Amino acid sequence: MVTGRAADEIDGLRRALSSAEIDRIAPHITLVPPVNVTDGEVPVACDLLRSVAAGFGPLELDLGPPTSFLPRNPVCYLTVSGDQEAIGGLASLAAGLATGPLAPPAVRRMRPFVPHVTIRQRMDRDKLVAAVAVLDGYRAHVVFERVTLLEYSAAERRWRDLCDAPFAAPLLRGRGGIEIELSLSRRSDPAVEDWSRRTWEQYAVAQHGPDVRPDEPFTICARIGGVLAGVAEGDVRGLTCRLARLMVSPEWRNAGVGTQLLRASEDHGVESGCARVRLEALAGSRAEGFYLGRGYEVVGTLPRWREERDFVVMETALGVWLAGAQ
Q1: Domain ranges of the chain
Q2: Helix (H, G, I), strand (E, B) or coil at 164
């Protein structure tokens, strides 16, 4: 996946060309075309990703200039180049991954591996030719440090991360005793998530008794005219409804969307039997003022919580809010 400044720039190019994929998949170099993988094969696919990635180091590549697959295919994309070692490593990586559950079906026609970053598919020919000419000067140097396996969500109509692996051999600790392999990823793969959930539930029962309530995540979406305008995410933890994120699209800020998402989160807390809603906000920020103006109070501080900046812990008692609302 392309990340950081280069990803923002490429999304700018995609937006300028009205790409329908901009909200469906992040900028990336496709190593293995989509294949159908059963639920039972997912752990095997994630293991394959880790084992293959362990044999590579970071890949330094250059993206650009734009070109197309015309006349065969009206796709505008960024070329991928680099030194012989980097390009050879990219091809070897693709070949190593296209095995086992990720192997292409036998009926698929084999095509030469052409690394590229798609900007837009199915463009009008004249517009495509013009876009390639106008964007001819675009270049970006990117260091790829990991590989990501994506899955398509039909409900969300987008591709989302399933598991990832760094380009580095796993750390080995405890040599001479029990050898422990440590691997770092940006998110847990399904097998790890399942193990973590079950183990945590066992721990919670042991600590708090058989009637302990499991954490219950929630997501509340606000849409205007069918378009996503904001999201509230969190989880119910016993008597506490923790609001982890509340985000509103820039064009809909100051229109009441955030307030409605906050109230819906509080309603969910009440329906779930919670006594309070709790959240964190940057100390002295507009967000802190937003929550203070809606009945929340500061109950604690988190020094240097993120980017060496102080945050505050805020909460509101749901019973008090309900009493005041009557």
Answers
A1: 4-169, 211-325
A2: strand
Which of 175, 164, 190 lies closest to 31 in space, CA to CA? 164
Tell me if 137 sits within 8 A of 9, measured CB to CB: no
Give which of 33, 58, 37 is closest to 115, Cα–Cα: 33
User: Residues 167, 145: contact at Cβ < 8 Å?
Assistant: yes
Q: How far apart (Å, rounded) are the C-alpha atoms in residues 139 and 62?
A: 7
- pLDDT score at 109: 84
Q: What sign has the CA pseudo-torsion 236, 240, 246, 252?
A: positive
On the question of a common fold for 4-169 and 211-325, the answer reads: no
What is Dmax (Cα atoms) for the chain?
Answer: 71
- If one looks up domain 211-325 in CATH, what number appears? 3.40.630.30
117: helix, coil or strand?
strand
196-211 confidence digits (pLDDT tens): 989 988 999 999 898 8
Helices (H) and strands (E) in the chain, counts: 8, 14
Task: Give the three-class secondary structure for 56.
Answer: coil
The neighbour count for residue 263, using CB atoms within 10 Å, is: 16
Q: Please report which helix (H) or strand (E) contains residue 148, including its range.
A: strand 146-153
120/127 Cα distance (integer angstroms): 11
Architecture of the CATH domain 4-169: Alpha-Beta Complex (3.90)
Which positions of the chain have pLDDT values less than 50?
320-326
